[in-house]
């Protein structure tokens, strides 16, 4: 059968300071809801036999009301098209106490065909010619192995495992988030025709039969180089084809070497990079300032910068600062330095014997005065 695999939708994620003027909602939050519902239209248009969501549907354990409304609207679409939804809880949906009910309990009241695994145990769901083995977010790392050991491979159907965690083959990508659990490579068994993974936000194949669909949105700037979207999967063959879904674009604006640039030249450069963008107002952008002194960052005109930032949805300025060269003078402008006095101070801290110190100061000062006078004559 044909499924669409998505994950990590993080509904309810908000950020930045822009507000949607019509609804008063945080604009980032609203765009994520809107893109999710647009994505559902595209997914339903694919006429899959089921939709599989591999965890982190909501951004938090107690979702915002509008996050619920969005999911219930998506369930309306699936119900109308008679497409079942299979989903598991991810680490972002894990109640911290046993008294907090799971947000997935609410979804079970909808008339759509929804099967949610969120009870910290292995669950199984048969749809047509495919058996779905669901391992949701567990309390302890060892629980995954125990759940996995409970799996009995069905003989007459295709077997699909759905789980949420970091595959050990991606160890370098450790996300260091709450309750991040590792899926060791023996769990990526060939007994499954397909393994639908969630947690890692980039679209990535980690074994012949195992994929992270990736998130639909760029949730953080660390994901700037990730591929996003969903996957169309044939559960018999395990073949997965990327499905592009609408999101808020995240654009890497590259780097600017600031070594020889003045603060206003830096803002001009950023400005000209943004001028070339097709749709800056809808884009999350990052630019990197290289070889820049902290002091130079402080001297960037705030009003100019605010104007630039207003033109894009969000601008992240990453900087590789360099330490300033130690200066011997007390004032900043070299033309206003009293070189004779600076020289005298310099000699005084060398700890020289009295007469020698006197002689060096007077000889040196005379040389400085001569040089300064000559410069004045030459203007
Ligand atoms: Mn996630």
Question: Keywords, please?
Answer:
379 residues, alpha/beta, Purple Acid Phosphatase, chain A, domain 2, six-stranded mixed sheet, 9 helices, binds manganese (II) ion
Task: Explain what you see.
- The structure is a single chain.
- The protein folds into 3 domains: 2-243, 4-Layer Sandwich (Purple Acid Phosphatase, chain A, domain 2), CATH 3.60.21; 250-322, no CATH class; 335-377.
- α1 packs parallel to α2 and α8 (339-348) runs antiparallel to α9.
- The chain is elongated, with a radius of gyration of 30 Å.
- With 379 residues, the chain is an alpha/beta fold.
- The protein is built from 9 helices and 17 strands.
- It binds manganese (II) ion (MN).
């Amino acid at each position: 059968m044909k499924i669409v695999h998505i994950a990590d939708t993080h509904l309810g994620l908000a950020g930045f300071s822009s507000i949607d003027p019509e609804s008063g909602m945080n604009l980032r939050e609203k765009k994520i809801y809107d893109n999710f519902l647009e994505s559902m239209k595209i997914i339903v248009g694919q006429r899959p036999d089921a939709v599989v969501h591999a965890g982190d549907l909501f951004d938090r354990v107690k979702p915002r009301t509008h996050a619920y409304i969005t999911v219930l609207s998506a369930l309306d679409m699936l119900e109308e098209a008679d497409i079942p939804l299979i989903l598991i809880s991810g680490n972002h949906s894990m109640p911290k106490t046993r008294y907090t009910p799971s947000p997935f309990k609410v979804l079970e009241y909808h008339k759509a065909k929804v099967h949610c695994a969120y009870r910290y145990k292995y669950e199984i769901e048969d749809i047509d010619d495919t058996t779905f083995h669901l391992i949701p977010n567990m309390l302890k790392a060892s629980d995954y192995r125990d759940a996995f050991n409970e799996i009995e491979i069905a003989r007459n159907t295709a077997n699909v495992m759905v789980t949420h965690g970091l595959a050990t083959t991606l160890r370098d990508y450790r996300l260091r988030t709450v309750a991040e659990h590792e899926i060791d490579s023996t769990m990526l068994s060939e007994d499954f025709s397909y393994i639908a993974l969630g947690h890692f936000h980039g679209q990535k194949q980690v074994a012949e039969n195992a994929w992270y669909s990736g998130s639909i949105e760029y949730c953080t700037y660390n994901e700037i180089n990730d591929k996003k979207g969903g996957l169309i999967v044939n559960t018999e063959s395990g073949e997965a084809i990327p499905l592009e879904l609408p999101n808020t674009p995240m654009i890497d604006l590259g780097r600017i070497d600031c070594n020889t640039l003045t603060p206003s030249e830096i803002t001009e450069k950023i400005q000209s990079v943004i001028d070339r963008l097709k749709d800056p107002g809808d884009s999350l952008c990052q630019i990197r300032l290289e070889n820049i002194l902290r002091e130079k960052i402080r001297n960037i005109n705030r009003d100019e910068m605010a104007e630039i930032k207003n033109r894009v949805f969000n601008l992240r300025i990453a900087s590789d600062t360099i330490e300033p060269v130690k200066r011997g003078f007390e004032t900043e402008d070299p033309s206003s330095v009293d070189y004779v006095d600076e020289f005298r101070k310099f000699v005084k801290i060398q700890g020289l014997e009295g007469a020698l110190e006197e002689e060096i100061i007077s000889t040196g000062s005379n040389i400085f005065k001569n040089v300064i006078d000559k410069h004045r004559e030459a203007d």
